[in-house]
Specification:
14 strands, 3 domains, 431 residues, Dna Topoisomerase Vi A Subunit, Chain: A, domain 2, alpha/beta
């Protein structure tokens, strides 16, 4: 920091708190103390003058006492800083302005050094992130650009959380790939990437990773627990491999013992549940040429009651597809199975159908504008949430926006069962 006055003589003077308070520490001179502090922190020289516009009589008198002379009567009050430093030194109050300001208002920050250190930390935090093997992926670059541009990286560093930026990349590098049949448990993923099982349960790290997953999936950043769970599921991450389950009907498959269980249930026309843990321990290979995906257990129940073992293979997502559900469907698609997808006529229903088309090459099943229009007389509830697109038929989303009504799959159960019955008759004309 710059010194003002004679350095040699200044070193012989220590701070006299009482004198300093009387001369410069009075409330009427707080503005002057603050102006000097600002200059010091910016690294500016103290050889100039500071000016206060509209000074009061009390403030003028305080400056007069400090300088030992009248401060004038104009509308502006100008104070030469070298003169202030000299008066403090002569009075034995402080050796220089740096010492005086630090006693009166605390240590003086070196903002230039802090900025330099901040830039260094910023660069260090992003160094390994930019060097990641994922740096060639467009979604990864978009995520990194986004958190750099909007101040997220700077804020995390300032708050002492700079390490989570590298940890986020470590998590992303450990996620199952798009065609990878592995699945991971959230706590195990967190422990592997950070050393703490709870690191992804909440907080800045989870937020960073979810933003990256949203960029990867091409969706908005999650604002609800349900949206966050959907992103984790899409990435093959599950909170509990026993709680993640998939409900099926008539899904014959190879593989022991899970494939045998599925086949035996299908021969009796019985709905069957598998957990992700079972699918991971005993992979199955579905034999069905076609799978009809629904979101409501009501359709599975009705198909089992009315069609039994004659029903085509059904997989029920029960809302947002679980990791177990996604794993089973990926296994089916990899063996050449065609997937036909139905969901609610809601914005999440459209979003889920579009995602299934991207991930599984699924074909929308009874999800046209004509199907929606035919269901409208049944009533429905008001459409809520963020509007989505229907890329397989843009008119469907337009019609839904205009009608403003949500039609759930439960309302369409008779129509869907009739369609399944007709398909069963085509596949087995003699039965």
């Amino acid at each position: 920091m710059p010194e003002v006055g004679n350095p040699a003589s200044a070193r012989q003077i220590t701070v006299d708190n009482a004198k300093l308070e009387r001369l410069l520490g009075v409330p009427e001179l707080s503005w002057l103390v603050e102006r000097i502090r600002v200059r010091l922190e910016r690294g500016e020289p103290l050889d100039g003058t500071v000016t206060l516009v509209g000074a009061t009589t009390v403030q003028r008198k305080a400056v007069g006492r400090l300088l030992g002379r009248p401060a004038g009567r104009g509308t502006s009050l100008s104070v030469p800083l070298p003169e202030v430093a000299e008066q403090l030194r002569r009075a034995g109050a402080a050796p220089d302005l740096v010492a005086a300001i630090e006693v009166l208002s605390g240590p003086v920050r070196d903002l230039a050094a802090e900025r330099a250190a901040g830039l260094q930390r910023w660069g260090d935090a992003l160094g390994s992130v930019r060097a990641s093997r994922m740096s060639g992926l467009p979604w990864y670059r978009d995520w990194l650009d986004s958190i750099s541009r909007d101040g997220t990286v700077t804020r995390l560093i300032r708050e002492g959380h700079g390490a989570v930026i590298g940890q986020a990349t470590a998590v992303l590098e450990r996620l199952p790939g798009g065609s990878d049949e592995r699945s991971v448990v959230l706590t195990a993923l967190a422990a592997d990437a950070t050393g703490s099982e709870r690191a992804l349960s909440d907080g800045p790290l989870a937020g960073l990773v979810l933003r990256a997953l949203a960029a990867r999936e091409g969706v908005e950043n999650p604002v609800s627990r349900e949206a966050a769970q959907a992103l984790w599921s899409a990435a093959g991450v599950v909170a509990d491999d026993l709680a993640s389950q998939v409900l099926v009907l008539n899904m014959r498959a190879g593989g022991e013992p899970a494939g045998r269980w599925l086949t035996e249930a299908a021969e009796s026309g019985l709905p069957f549940r598998l957990t992700l843990r079972q699918l991971m321990a005993a992979p199955v290979l579905p034999w069905a040429l076609e799978i009809f995906v629904c979101s409501s257990t009501a359709l599975v129940r009705a198909a089992a009651d009315e069609l039994g073992a004659r029903s085509p293979a059904i997989v029920c997502t029960e809302g947002q597809p679980s990791v177990a559900c996604s794993r089973l469907l990926r296994a089916a698609v990899s063996s050449g199975t065609s997937v036909y997808w139905h969901g609610d006529f809601t914005w999440p229903g459209l979003r889920g159908t579009a995602a299934a088309m991207r991930r599984l090459q699924a074909r929308p099943w009874l999800m046209t504008a004509a199907d929606y229009q035919a269901a409208l007389p049944a009533g429905g509830s008001p459409l809520t949430g963020h509007a989505e697109q229907s890329p397989w038929e843009p008119r469907l989303a337009e019609l839904m926006r205009a009608a403003g009504r949500a039609i759930t799959e439960e309302q369409l159960t008779p129509v869907l069962v009739a369609a399944l019955s007709a398909r069963a008759a085509e596949l087995n004309p003699g039965s």
